[in-house]
């Protein structure tokens, strides 16, 4: 794609599953730290698209802070104070908030969910596969992670569809099929103090507050109980807004990214039957293949930082206060790091992807759980199906933030 045609700010460029990768390719090769204008009211941003630059920025929160917000929306100080979650904190406060739940997401803690995850996977597949023709997103990849989250939050199974709906409406704030109110519309000003300017956030807050009221002072071990019954390590208690934002982050992050990774991975295996055959022939490849699934899917296109001082990056002079946007998806196709990056290869080695961040204080808290969920899903799924094929179009979320698939219509033959 010619450089002058690149526009990462236009969400319509992210609908076909091809244009984003063409834009990233051009930027990495011609302008790896690229100034991207944006429509008003935003001011534009620096697009960082090479793996090495992404890692450099992500590891340096002193120079590139998260505290001015991590999405493209530009907030004033009052909005940041109200809306800041763990993601929008740096330093001691970020570590203290992260440590509140960190032990629940260590590889050892997550491994204890193994039997539960296999049972849940079997339940999901038992319900979906006999249908023959179905939407893989609705019946499998959305159903499974949300039920894991429900277990960790200790909420009723009958509430899981509501959690999915909230996640769609919040993350899909630039997609008219999902959003109650589109970001930057006139109506969205009414919701400027809510995460993603989404009215659905109010429903999530109300739900979380009811759970908190029930569990405060108890001896529960679920995530909500841990948030309301302990004080962060820095000695500063969670404010009501802190709890609201933390709970919403769990609901959204605990569902959306794993769901989209599973969907993209299934689509890739359908489109690359030789790779599917390799996994069938040698299921021991699946744990390593998970890393390729994560690289290939790149479920979150970007996160933003803000420069705290004037700094040089990739030959460009970044000014204090400039938005600096890390395009993780582009880093996952960087030819300097990945041989044949546009090949989907379940046997790929040395897979240094940046899907969860890399060496950053903000390295994804739930990475071990996500990896295990994806591994178990495909270990359980592949032996059950003789063949699987697409039966329709694959619509994508209109978003330059989440690399999401709305529907994956398939037909399966059982093994």
Walkthrough of the structure:
43% of the residues lie in helices and 10% in strands. The chain has 415 residues and is α+β, with helices and mostly antiparallel strands. It has a five-stranded mixed sheet with strand order 1-2-8-5-3, covered by helices on one side. The chain has a three-stranded antiparallel sheet with strand order 4-10-9. The protein has a two-stranded antiparallel sheet with strand order 6-7. Strand 6 (311-313) and strand 7 form a beta hairpin. Helix 8 (143-153) crosses helix 9 and helix 10 crosses helix 12 (240-253). The termini are far apart. The mean pLDDT is 96.
Which structural category do the helix and sheet elements fall into?
alpha+beta
The outline comes out as globular
Strand content: 5-15%
**pLDDT averaged residue by residue:** 96
Kindly report the spatial arrangement of strands forming the biggest sheet.
Answer: 1-2-8-5-3
How many angstroms does the end-to-end distance come to? Answer: 43 Å
Fold topology:
Elements: H1 19-30, E1 33-36, E2 45-48, H2 51-58, E3 64-65, H3 77-83, H4 91-102, H5 107-111, H6 114-128, E4 133-135, H7 136-141, H8 143-153, H9 160-171, H10 200-215, H11 223-228, H12 240-253, H13 256-271, H14 273-281, H15 286-297, E5 303-307, E6 311-313, E7 316-318, E8 323-326, H16 328-331, H17 367-381, E9 385-390, E10 409-414
Parallel strand pairs: 2-8
Antiparallel strand pairs: 1-2, 3-5, 4-10, 5-8, 6-7, 9-10
Helix pairs in contact: 6-8, 6-17, 8-9, 9-10, 10-12, 13-15, 13-17, 15-17
């Amino acid at each position: 794609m010619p450089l002058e045609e690149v526009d990462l700010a236009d969400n319509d460029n992210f609908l076909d599953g091809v244009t984003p990768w063409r834009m990233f390719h051009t930027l990495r090769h011609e302008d790896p730290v690229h100034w991207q204008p944006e429509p008003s009211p935003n001011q534009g941003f620096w697009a960082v698209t090479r793996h090495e630059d992404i890692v450099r920025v992500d590891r340096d929160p002193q120079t590139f802070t998260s505290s001015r917000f991590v999405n493209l929306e530009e907030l004033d100080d009052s909005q940041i104070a109200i809306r800041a979650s763990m993601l929008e904190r740096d330093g001691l406060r970020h570590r203290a908030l992260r440590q509140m739940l960190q032990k629940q997401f260590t590889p050892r803690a997550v491994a204890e969910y193994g039997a539960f995850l296999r049972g849940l996977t079997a339940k999901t597949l038992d319900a979906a596969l006999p249908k023959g023709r179905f939407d893989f997103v609705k019946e499998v990849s959305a159903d499974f992670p949300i039920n894991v989250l429900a277990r960790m939050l200790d909420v009723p199974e009958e509430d899981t569809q509501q959690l999915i709906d909230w996640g769609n409406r919040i993350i899909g704030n630039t997609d008219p099929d999902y959003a109650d109110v589109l970001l930057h519309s006139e109506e969205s000003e009414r919701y400027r103090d809510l995460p993603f300017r989404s009215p659905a956030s109010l429903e999530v807050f109300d739900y979380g507050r009811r759970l908190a009221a029930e569990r405060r002072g108890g001896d529960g071990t679920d995530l909500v109980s841990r948030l309301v019954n302990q004080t962060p390590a820095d000695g500063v208690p969670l404010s009501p807004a802190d709890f609201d934002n933390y709970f919403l982050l769990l609901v959204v992050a605990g569902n959306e990214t794993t769901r989209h990774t599973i969907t993209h991975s299934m689509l890739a295996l359908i489109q690359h039957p030789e790779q599917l055959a390799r996994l069938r022939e040698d299921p021991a490849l699946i744990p390593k293949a998970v890393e390729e699934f994560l690289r290939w899917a790149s479920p979150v296109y970007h996160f933003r930082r803000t420069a705290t001082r004037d700094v040089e990056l990739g030959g460009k002079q970044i000014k204090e206060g400039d938005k600096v946007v890390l395009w993780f998806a582009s880093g996952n196709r960087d030819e300097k790091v990945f041989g044949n990056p546009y090949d989907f290869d379940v046997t790929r080695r040395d897979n240094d992807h940046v899907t969860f961040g890399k060496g950053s204080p903000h390295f994804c808290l739930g990475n071990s759980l996500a990896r295990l969920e994806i591994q178990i899903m495909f270990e359980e799924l592949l032996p059950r199906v003789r063949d699987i094929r697409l039966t329709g179009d694959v619509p994508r979320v209109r978003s330059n933030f989440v690399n999401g698939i709305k529907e994956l219509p398939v037909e399966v033959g059982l093994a």
